[in-house]
Every structure is written in C-alpha cells, then in structure tokens.
Design brief:
434 residues, alpha/beta, 15% strand, binds pyridoxal-5'-phosphate
C-alpha cells in the first residue's frame, strides 16, 4: 500500500463536504421573520394578543420530555445557575460534580458561591462514578450534579439511590443528551431538575440557549421568577401591557431567552427526533464496522438506556496499536484524513485552565474558602486515562450518508497502518479545553 498520511502531506482519505451544523431551513426563516414583524422580541416586552414563542417553546420542550414544567433560559450555564439557586445552593455548600466535563458544570457552582467537589468517572460511561460520589459526600454536600456525557448516560439507578439515601437533590445536566431515555424515561426527569444547553454545538440549538425542566411545581415557580428578575407570567395578560408581573419572592436575575431564540428552538425541535434517529443509525453502523478494527472500541450501551443519543461519538483506543502516539496526534491525523474535527475528551477539571475560582473578584473569597477551592486535592485517575485513550467524532459527522461510516473506518485503519510516521511530531497532549 502506498500513500502518505494527509497530516504529512499525503492524499486525505476523503474530500467530502460534511453536513453543516447548525441547520436551518425555510421554516426557520419564516418563524424568525414572524418574530421580527411581531413587535415582541422579549418576554419582558408588551403582550401582543398571542402566546409568545418563549411560552410555546417551553410547552413544546416539556411535552417532548414528558414532564410538567420547562423554563427556557439563556444558556446551559444559565440553566445550571438557576437550578442551583432554586435549590438554595449557596456560600459554603458543596456540590458533587463529575471530574470530566465542560467547565460550566463546576464554574456554575463556583459562581453561586459553593464549592465543586470533583468526582472521578466510571470508565464504562465517562460519567460520574456513583461509588466515588458516595465517598465524596460530607455534611456540607447539598446537591449531586451529574452529566450524561458524549453518547452515554450516567448510572441513574445508582445515583438516584444515592441521592435518596442522603436526601440530596439530583441535578441532571443533559446538555449532551437531548432526547435520551433511561428505563423508558427521558433524561432530565429522573432527579429534581434537568438542565439543557442549546448552544451552537448541541443537538438542539439556537446559537445560545438553555432550559430547565422539572415536575415539581414549587421549584418551577422559583425557576420562573429567578430567570426574569423576580417576575412571573400573568394569568390574564392585557394586550399592550407587560405580560410579566412583579412578584419578588426570590432575588431574580435576567436570564431570559429572546423571542428569536425561542422561535428557532420551537422550529428545530420538530427535527430533533429525526436527527437523533439518523445519528443513531450511523453510530450503530460505525460500531459494527469498528468491531473489525484492532485496538479501537466504542462505548458499550447499557441495557437500561432505552434510547441512546449521540452528541459526540466516543471511541476508546489502545495507543500501542497506534505505535504509542498520543491521542492528540492521532486526532490531528484523523482530522486531516477526514476533513472533520476529531478531538480528545476534556482536560480533567482539576487541571483545567478555565476552572480558576482563585481568580474570582476580590472579596468573593476569604482565606479559608481559598483552601477549599484548592483543586489539587482531587485525584481523577479515570478521567486522566480517558483523556489519554478516548477520541470523539463530532455529531454532525453522524448526519451524513452511509458512505461516511466507511470513510471513518478507512481513515482509522490508515492512521493505524502509518502511525509510525507520526512519531516525530510533538506528542505533548494539548491543553486546549475541549
Ligand atoms: C455545553 C455544556 C454546558 C454549558 O452550556 P452553555 O450553553 O455553553 O452555557 C454545560 N454542561 C455540559 C455537559 C455541556 O456540554
């Protein structure tokens, strides 16, 4: 066999154009034009005689998740912040957080004044390890924040049991799992609240957006007020007047989704099931084909996951099969072969550049709290191992036709075969925060 790796100047495995993300069509344009002409661009604007898009999306997303309540918000970070505030998490409290996830899970905790306690992951799912979580509980623990990462779900049976046993609220961060089901129930409905992000990279997006779902009416009322400066939707709005009425039962903030964003979400939600099915079909084909390739294995599906979704498709590699190259170099080589980005997993949060509570404004931290924020006290060996041995394909790569699966497999085989030539490249793991 001839040819060189694309990263080293050879012909790439494919020159295909990958599916674009985010997606929009005429329906999206129509709904945006409707907002533009409506005279109502925000829930804090005057009532125009019809239900605003924010309310319509809230109802549609609650229905999609088969849950009573949904409060849309600005971002996944906004959703986590609202959930923490609604649950009364504050200064001095501890919240368990997985050690391998996007930084917002821990920084949201920091930004409400509480301390994130980083817990190592279960290597089978890359989600928080329930037995490690148990060991991390102290008398200051007030909540357990879990994430359903990449294309797997956390062990909800064990985590629900743990939360019940210690009478702690469970926060499910579903920013990477819109539509997944555990034992038949949608993610986000198994704990006290479910938090979603609709940021550009997520499988449902309006650029920047988020939502919190809950079945608890009391929590819901708090969430509603927290996100719009302590106001609440009126039961009997009058055309031309503000629809939000002042309540002030909580100290609120402005974390409102605009009507443009809500309209885009309402439109794109109609496509989510189809897109999830499409990605799942490609992912299943890819798993089947990868079974023939040495030294690479996808994450297994837990039987209790009754609907699996794919944000990023994770493949575990045996570095020796790639001649000992670092996962970073292998990702660069695969990205060059495929023309789509293949990435390592996150840098573990105990050494993540963007988690830096010591850089909070002066006055937010006293000396005693500084020691509690010392992240070097957390040991995350499984998160480190995942950082060295897992790579991820972005979800739009799973929206292509069946030929894409073949190309991905060919690219992996090619990089494996020629991996010896990569040894001269810098093998330093990148500290880029994925
Ligand atoms: C994207 C993401 C967030 C943050 O969402 P934003 O909308 O970017 O604020 C939080 N948690 C997880 C697991 C995410 O993937």
């Amino acid at each position: 066999m001839t040819g060189n790796l694309a990263l080293l100047g050879g012909e790439p495995t494919t020159r295909r154009t990958w599916p674009r993300w985010p997606r929009a069509d005429e329906g999206t344009e129509r709904i945006l034009a409707d907002v533009l002409a409506s005279g109502r661009w925000a829930i804090s604007g005057p009532f125009r005689g019809r239900e605003c898009y924010e309310r319509r999306f809230a109802a549609a997303f609650a229905a999609f998740n088969e849950v009573a309540h949904c409060t849309p918000t600005t971002s996944g970070t906004g959703a986590l912040t609202m959930a923490l505030l609604a649950l009364g998490v504050g200064r001095g409290d501890e919240v368990l957080v997985p050690g391998l996830t996007w930084v917002a899970c821990a920084s949201s905790v920091v930004n409400v004044g509480a301390v994130p306690i980083l817990v190592d992951i279960d290597p089978r799912t890359l989600a928080i390890d329930a037995s490690r979580a148990r060991e991390a509980i102290t008398d200051r623990t007030v909540a357990i924040l879990i994430v359903h990462p990449f294309c797997a779900l956390a062990d909800l049976d064990a985590l629900i049991a743990l939360a019940r046993e210690h009478d702690l609220p469970l926060i499910e961060d579903c920013a990477q799992a819109h539509g997944a089901r555990w034992r038949g129930g949608r993610v986000g409905t198994h704990g006290a609240v479910g938090c979603f992000s609709m940021q550009q990279s997520k499988v449902l997006t309006c650029g920047e957006g988020g939502a919190v779902i809950t079945s608890d009416p009391v929590l819901h009322d708090r969430l509603e007020q927290i996100r719009c400066d302590g106001r609440r939707f009126s039961d009997a709005p009058v055309e031309g007047n503000l629809e939000l009425v002042e309540v002030g039962e909580v100290q609120g903030r402005n974390l409102c989704l605009s009507e443009f964003q809500a309209a885009v979400l309402l439109d794109r939600l109609e496509h989510l099931d189809d897109e999830n099915r499409h990605r799942a079909r490609r992912a299943e084909e890819l798993e089947e084909r990868l079974a023939e390739v040495d030294g690479v294995s996808p994450l297994e599906t837990d039987d209790r996951v009754t609907e699996r979704t794919y944000y990023n498709f994770v493949v575990r590699i045996a570095p020796e099969v790639f001649k000992g190259n670092s996962v970073d170099v292998i990702c660069q080589a695969l990205s060059a072969e495929l023309g789509t980005s293949v990435n390592p997993v996150y840098v573990p949060l105990n050494r993540h550049r963007l988690l830096c509570p010591w850089n909070l404004p002066p006055g937010d931290l006293d000396e005693r709290e500084k020691t509690r924020f010392d992240l070097s006290r957390f040991s995350l060996p499984e998160a480190e191992r995942a950082r060295r041995t897992c790579l991820t394909f972005v979800h739009p790569a799973l929206l292509g036709d069946a030929g894409t699966v073949e190309e991905i497999v060919r690219a992996i085989k090619k990089v494996q075969r020629l991996a010896g030539r990569l040894r001269d490249l810098p093998q330093q793991p990148s500290t880029q925060a994925f």
